[in-house]
Amino acid sequence: MKIVFLGTGGSWPSPERNVLSIAVKREKEIILLDCGEGTQRQFMLSPLSFMQTKIILISHFHGDHFLGLPGLIQSMTLNDREDDLKVFGPVGTLNLVKTLLELGYFNPGFRVEVRDLEPGETVDFDAYRISTFRAKHNVPCIGYSIEERDRPGRFDLEKAKQLGIPEGPLYRRLQRGEEVKVDDKVFTPDMVMGPPRKGRKIVYTGDTTPSSEIVEAAKDCDVLIHDATAESSLEEKANKYGHSTAKQAAEIAKECNAKVLFLVHISPRYDDAAPLLEEAKAEFENTILADDLMEYEVRLED
Q: Which CATH architecture has domain 2-151+197-297?
């Protein structure tokens, strides 16, 4: 699983940063977190193909988080996309996307499935689930948790041999969760398999002030991607407009026991955002200031 930060700025594009859009690539598909203006071109500057985007998750309806949708969908159409595209977002997303797709003289050449989500809803897929939580912004906003299902435990080869289970196809059946029979003896997976191993968990807050709901949703996550619009000297102003400081993001990361924190939605007031990183690392050492086109591999635990 790889994260590519297509855009890391907030409010409007700057020479240093495009507005918010983050691609999570898992195997051959991409889950896109927000889709600010210019996302399709950011894709072209990255190692990813926008044609692999399967799901787009919109956090809220400020332009720097959704205005890239019509252009991206049109580019997919012009490149002969046939696969369905799923778009999820807060209540109103269905009407928003319908309106955006009626603005241009084109019809998508593929099915665009749109669904409104309430905070607390979960959408299940084969290998992972996407859950929503309430973000504290000045318009309705939801954050997202992408969490893989648990993986089977490790197969204990020595234990299987000691039990007298013949090597070969029976091992594979046990690893698939099936019981097997040898002569008159029945062997179950729990006899040779270790405890389940947790999948990876990525949490994206959207625009938000700090909240206990984020702490709960992001508990023990592998990656927390958090609004860090400004430094602490501007905390009152940032919070007034529904944003967090870098220090507040770090405090959330510490409280929820995240493995790594990425700071995003950096205000265009910062030509150099190093002060944000410095104050965040003072609270939570494993903090990274996300830059446009930065890549990060989310590794599985052994």
A: 4-Layer Sandwich (3.60)
